[in-house]
Amino acid sequence: MSSQSPLLEARNIGKSFLGIAALDGVDFTLQRGEIHALLGENGAGKSTLIKILTGVYRRDRGSIQLEGSEILPETVADAQALGIGTVYQEVNLLENLTVAENLYLGRQPRRFGLLDRKAMTAGAKTLLSRYGLDIDVNALLSSYSVAVRQIVAIARAVDLSGKVLILDEPTASLDGHEVEMLFTVLRQLKAEGLGIVIITHFLAQVYAVADRATVLRNGRLVGSRVLEGLPRMDLISMMLGRELLEIENDHAADHAVTTPAGDAPIRFEQYGRRGSVAPFDLSIRPGEVVGIAGLLGSGRSETAFLMFGIDRADSGQALIDGKPVQLSSPQAAIANGFGFCPEERKTDGIIGEFSVAENIALALQARDGWARPMSAKKQRALAQEFIRSLDIRPPDPDRPIKFLSGGNQQKAILARWLVTEPRLLILDEPTRGIDIGAHAEILKMIEKLCREGMALVVISSELEELTAVAHRVIVLSDRAHVAELKGADVTADNIMRAIATPATTEAA
Amino acid sequence: MQTTLISGAITRKLRRLAPQLAALFAILALITAISPGFLSVTVQNGRLYGSLIDVLVRAAPVALLTIGMTLVIATRGIDLSIGAVIAICGAVAASLVADGYPLVAVLVAVTAVGLVCGLWNAVLVAFLDIQPIIATLILMVAGRGIAQLITEGVILTFNNDDFAVIGSGALGGIPVPVLLWLAAGLLVGLLVRRTALGFLIEATGINRRAAMLAGVQARFLLIFVYAVSGVMAALAGLIITADIRGADANNAGLWLELDAILAVVIGGTSLNGGRFSITASLIGALIIQSINTGILVSGFPPEFNLIIKASIIIVVLTLQSPALGFIAGFFRPPGAGQPIGTASGEHRAADKAGTTRTDRTATSLSTGERAS
After folding, report:
1. Which residues on neighbouring strands pair with residue A195, listed in sequence order?
2. N or C end of chain A: which has fewer CB within 10 A?
3. A433-to-A49, A320, A404, A426, B210 alpha-carbon distances in Å
4. Dihedral sign, CA of A357, A362, A367, A370?
């Protein structure tokens, strides 16, 4: 088999958006009869690669060969005709049509120019029976579970394309039994010689079903490994990276001495939400940076959502200065002195058409209420102050924030919270998608705020970032807090080891 | 320094309104060319008369609706129910007047009914998270039914000169409907711009989730805008009812919500929400009414009215279209899409402003892509 030419071979793929490289010289090889996991954190370039393979984007450079011949899919239909089919996380079928109609949408069997329902029903039945699915194909798709819909989508994709099947997060909304059902189908397709690419965040599933894994990080290829016999630890370190920045060593030594003592004024006790994060204990002191580590989907952002009142906790309580508080909404959290820089800057952070000054003023204005307007003059003065202290570029308070670079947008959002003088600032991936210079500046800012007595929670998938700034690191895995590292124990190795340890029974 | 700041603010405001003002003056000039007497204003019995005054009076219902609709659209919503709310409020007004209730009681009751209608929409949109177009469609359909129940299926007429003043009276020579919409526009305009309401409404309209995560009480703002919209519809209902001295549940305010939406769009407020200008929307309402009145006085056969109106509106909207921006660069000046009450730079690059809208589309497209 290995002597054969690969089914799909992508070489040196590059793609930039607005001058920022999303993929840089990535190679990817898929064999016949192989299930290949594509791994990486958010922004690693997985979806960009998939979209290039399936004709959603056009590559800037590189070559893709399917069965030895060069291809350049221009559209999804193009890729399908070539033999590359995709099933997305949110199943891309029409729920208000029947199963059979979905399978034959756009290529319905006809007789005398009319729809041949009989042929369609029969065809759909035989198609699905291959997957061990015996269902009424004339019932609406919406009457079936997500797992069945998933298999229908796979059946359609395989029937249309037949060489390469790409699955983007197929198991995200399936339960254990359904996942097994799906995997059985995948193994069968693999035996039939299909090449299957699967994107998932669940490492256990990767090991359960995939033969090989390719890891991307920051748009670059980290490596491609056969999974059998590969320690979990190695795979995780490939995903999170272990090149330690120099600054880490400077600060790692400080951890033990700078951890403040005393009773924590901000405490979460058995705080949790079913289906989001298992109950956790967390206490944060002023002048302390608590890091939160874990793989994508481990409950990192969900922990922040709970703490900031975006999601409501259904267990436990939050205590501030020993008094229980209700964090039922962002307003409530802000009233208690919290601030939150979200991971998704575009959708959750910036008000695109608003100027930098207006974006900075927003949280303070919202807290002051509509009846106490901040004058345009004060907005600009505040903005000028933070443009100077955070070095926001260009230094123009009136420029719509959407025209700023990611790093400068992030600084403006940071400024938005700093003007409210929060006692606890939660930063979710504060350095994602920003350039190296701004990266270092934001880390410095975190340290400065911490010295000034602010309590900070920093969520990050960059381990060197956490080890550089955090006094303590909470490690999450499978939506539960599984470990807490303190002082000298805060090292990239220890964090990865904690992530790799299979979740204990407390994970509900 | 202070004076330059103020004059800067006025310049910006004029720049924002330039396309609408230009369109209005062009249409007025066109009508005057066809029927020369159009602009003449006379005083009879201490009241202003003339076609121009007629435009201001006839524009009153749509102008009032436009005030509320601007705010609703700024939150990225839409209120289809206001035409039906006019019918309900008209029916309530007519039946109360016919039953001999004092004028003040009638005014308070009708305004309250409009407020309740607005709050109903607000509950559907803000708490049940129903899409605004569907949420307000419910009252749009049900409203006329409710109005018919109140009038018991007949056109309810009354004879009450005190109440009729709202529709046809004058105060200091100026017709009452004109005073009403000017006052309402001024009041609501000051309310949203002198407080932070306008700022927060715009933030919510541009990115509701981000605004909420910054602590903006989006629900409160939604309730506010739909309530204002309901109250404005009540005032419009009062004027229409007082003018014809009767309530016609089937026809009062019919399709006016569409004119109001059109006025907002002509005024340059994007249906995608965000930056809004009540003044520009009001000029939009005047543009629509000028066209209506102009066609009438120009002596065209009435069967041409709708076609002519549609043609002129297409021209106005085409001139505002960002696709035409590069041709008519002078027509979409720098600062278009800028806020009225907020600070903005003098040195904003002209090309930036020209592309504001297209960028917006690109942004929403890329968000859609993220979601898929």
Report:
1. A34, A164
2. N
3. 17, 33, 13, 18, 18
4. positive
Pull the structure tokens for residue A233: 């630890």
**Residues in chain A, overall count:** 508
| Mean pLDDT (whole number) for A434-450 | 81
Question: What span, in angstroms and rounded, lies between the C-alpha atoms of A133 and A103?
Answer: 14
Q: Between β-strands A84-87 and A164-168, what pairing exists: parallel, antiparallel or unpaired?
A: parallel
ipTM above 0.85, yes or no: no
> What local confidence, expressed as pLDDT, does residue B2 receive?
52
Q: Do B196 and A399 touch (CB under 8 A)?
A: no
CATH, domain range A8-96+140-240:
3.40.50.300
Q: Is the previous residue joined to A265 through a cis bond, with omega within 30 degrees of 0?
A: no
Instruction: Give the domains, in start order, of chain B with CATH numbers.
Output: 47-306 (1.10.3470), 321-365 (no CATH)
Q: Are strands B156-157 and B47-49 parallel, antiparallel or unpaired?
A: unpaired
Residue B2 · residue B303 · CB < 8 Å: no
* Secondary structure class of A380 (helix, strand, coil): helix
Task: Give the residues of chain B that fall short of pLDDT 50.
Answer: 1, 328-372
User: In which residue are the tokens 């700034």 written?
Assistant: A469
Q: Which two tokens stand for residue A202?
A: 């669940």
Tell me the mean pLDDT in the region A384-388: 93
Instruction: Assess A175–B contact: CB distance below 8 Å, yes or no.
Output: no
Q: What does the pLDDT read at residue A383?
A: 94
pLDDT-above-70 percentage for chain A: 91
Q: What's the confidence (pLDDT) of residue A42?
A: 67
CA–CA distance, A477 with B298 (Å, rounded to integer): 76
Which CATH number applies to A265-337+423-437+447-508: 3.40.50.2300, 3.10.450.50, 3.40.50.150, 3.40.50.300?
3.40.50.300
Query: Average pLDDT for residues A105-132, to the nearest whole number?
Result: 84
Task: Report chain A residues whose CB lies below 8 A from the CB of B203.
Answer: 351, 354, 358, 362
pLDDT score of A90: 63
| Cβ distance of A358 and B203 shorter than 8 Å | yes
| Chains A–B, number of C-beta pairs less than 8 Å apart | 107
Structural domain boundaries in chain A = 8-96+140-240, 265-337+423-437+447-508, 348-421
Helix (H) or strand (E) holding A46: helix A46-53
Across residues A164-193, what is the average pLDDT?
Answer: 84
